[in-house]
Amino acid sequence: MSEDKINAEGSKGLINNPQGTVHQHFGNQNSHSAQGDIAYRDIDKRNINIIQFMVGNSTDVVAEQLIDKLIHIIGQIKNTESILKAYQKSLPDEANLYYDEENNIEKILDQVNEFRRLTEFSKYLQKDENLPQAIRYKLSELLDIYTPKNELKQRESKSIAYKESNRLQSYLLIVISPDYYSPDQFNVKGWLIPDNTVPFTDSNRYKPLTLDDESHKKSYLFEDVYKLLNDFLRISLDKYLLPLVNTNDLTYDLTIEIFLPSEHICTEVEHWSILDRKNKQIPIGTKYPIIVRSYERLNLNYCRDCLNDWRKNWNRVKDLLQITPTHEEFEHIEELHDCNWDEIISNFLQENVKIGFKVGCPVSEAKQEDLFNALDDAAVPIALWARYKVPDIDHSTEINKLLTSRSLMELPRYIYEQRVKTCKPKNPPEKHLEYHLSLLWEDPYRLTPDVMFELQPPG
Q1: What are the structural domain ranges in the chain?
Q2: pTM of the model
């Protein structure tokens, strides 16, 4: 069939129900003839137009990065009708739709871009319930990063999703690292991510939290580190978060992630105290969701050896974030005293089906090093365990209930909410498993800015 221009109103039936066999053709940009060279250069020019359309004339974004992501995502869609429907809906009524038997996606994107409707096209695809959840989530991520600036009401955030809900997802990163010169002392640094939807390549993503001019030279005993929490929170709120949300009529959810050395990974950090507005000491875990992370994963040698596996594992997590996981998607460890860690690590990496560890017994001090070496060696993204044995409670059963009670994305906040319930007056918290739980949540794209900078390609 030769390529024809079809009036939009008169072609709805044809576009939604194309006659004959329909083939998606995405082209091959790796090998091309002399004629292909001309088309290839044209595609390169169009790529730049798409970048300019979606993010303005920003010089921080590489054109190939966006077009490769978009083509890769659409290339996984086997439902041609979904693409054609999004194509038709995204264009104005007066537009002429291009249709040929190959349904060439490059021509579709080219025309959508000419009408400056690439975002609308992506939105329609993202909302199509006929597409796999993983595809829709990837499109949502792409929209979060590359939404046009004029839709953001001059916010720093680049996310349509959070613009619509008026809620920022914010993270306070606190890194506790051994002092090189004093083995019993620790250095402490902090950064705030006011809006997690800002790309990690954007220099505005991180806000350094400097306690005073000499803070970078100080070291602390581990038992004194908690005293810095009030200062980190004060600077985060007063200098960054509150001005941002008040100026833009937003709200925020703040999660605190604490990077700990392996020998302290079982520390009850959510019980560390802060001052509330009445100057009363309260556990920080009753005010904010707390996540523990491994300090060792900030080591560049670790990233060099394990980052690839880590990101592969995290990709499985991303595919499940929007849905409720099953307990079979976690490696279940019933006992720690007779574990074959080599086999567990090998299976986790080779099977590529599980997303984390769940530990059905208390993690004793004697066994915690083995467990956390395994977590790091397997680049496990998520782990949940209890630090102490709670009488009359089956740990495995209760942990399974927690893991399967909400969507995976809601798990950190849900554990926080359950922990808050255990700390109400006249309610002994020690009798509740949630009071003793630790949650490890290792997102390889949310590391400290110095590490993220080192991981960026040169130039």
Answers
A1: 4-151, 298-459
A2: 0.65
